[in-house]
Structure formats: C-alpha cells, structure tokens
Amino acid sequence: MSRIKPLLVxxxxxxxxxxxxxxxxxxxxxxxxxAPHSILVLPPINRSPEIVAPYALMAQVMKxxxxxxxxxxxxxxxxQTFRNNGLTVAQDVHAVPIQKLREIFGADAALYMSIENYxxxxxxxxxDTTVTxxxxxxxxxxxxxxxxxxxxxxxSEQRGDSNESSFLxxxxxxxxxxxxxxxxxxxxxxSEVAADRLLSADKHNGLLYGPRSPKYGQVGSQ
Length: 222
What we know:
Blueprint: H1 4-20, H2 29-34, E1 38-41, E2 45-46, H3 53-68, E3 71-72, H4 75-84, H5 90-94, H6 98-105, E4 109-123, E5 126-139, E6 145-154, H7 167-183, H8 187-199
Parallel strand pairs: 1-3, 1-4, 2-4
Antiparallel strand pairs: 4-5, 5-6
Helix pairs in contact: 3-8
Organism: Fluctibacter halophilus
Keywords: Signal
Pfam families: GNA1162-like (PF05643)
C-alpha cells in the first residue's frame, strides 16, 4: 500500500502536466456567427530588427488563408492602394478606421499581424532562426474580434541536433549555421512554417474553414 500511494501521486502529477501543456481550444462562436467570405490581409507591424521580415511573411500567409476557403485580396494591389493614399508604414495602415477599410476594399474581415521575432541568433553552441507572429482577425462590419492567436517556428525543428558531437565541433557547426542561415535568409522558409501553423484551418486553433472549402464552417484539428 505504501508503494502504491507514491505511484498514484506521480501519475496524477504527470497527468496534470500533460493537460497543462495542451493549449485550450478557441471559442469560435463570434467567427461562426460572422461567417466572413473575404479577408483583407494588412501589412504586418515589424517589431524585429530585420527589414525583410514583413515581405517574407506576406509571401507566405496568403496560401493557408486561401486553402482554408477564403477570398484574399492580392498583396500588391493592397499595398499599392495604401501607398496611393499616403500610407507607407504598417502602423499607420493598422490605424485606419475599419469603416474606411470596408468602404475601400469591400472585405468582410481584416487580418492584423505583428512580427514579434524574426532572425538568426547565435548562443555559444547553437544557431537558430526563429519567426514568431501574432494575428487578430477583425470583422470590418462592426469591429468584433473573430479570432486571434500566436505561433512560432524555428530552423532547429528541421535539423537533428546530435549530442555525440564534440564541444568544438558544435561551436563550428553553430557558427556555420549562423552564417548560412543569415546569408540565405532562412527566415523566409521558417516564416512559411509559422504562417501555416498560425492560420491553416487544419491546425489546432487555426482559422475556420471558409465558404470555398468543402468543410465550410468546421473547426480544424483540436
């Protein structure tokens, strides 16, 4: 009996830690009620030091939104429209009243994004390119927040780090990886993973399936 009790306690602790690691599912009630057909993707606010970050992200976000079943406005057309109206900074675009966005583009909803992290870092024996993005989907008809989430991706997920390498070998490998990932802008590839993880309808807490999807209105993997 004395042995069973500690094992029971350990089991409960492991069960609790397992539950804590799973993110709770979103409440999609407002999203389902609004049922947007078109999404206007606004230029993301870049909080990273990398000037290429917004371009890399914008090149990747349209695919998961379109595949989810929504009409998305062409990136170049949207950017040109804002430039023609004197708006060249993402912060200024995000400050445009929703009624004005609705009037100009006729979109049902707008996606506001913020790049929290983008770039390659080198820490002693590790080099890693990380992209972190947060997003909020807003109904342009009444300003209701329909959905919001945050996702990250890193280059270390795509390579196997061996524990058998020598310390010197790991130092050299980290330095090489940093140079390679910086010169080739590995962030572009990592942005694709982050965007898919954040927006895809088949991901946990992603967008709902849109009207152009056979799974319209359904919630993806929970």
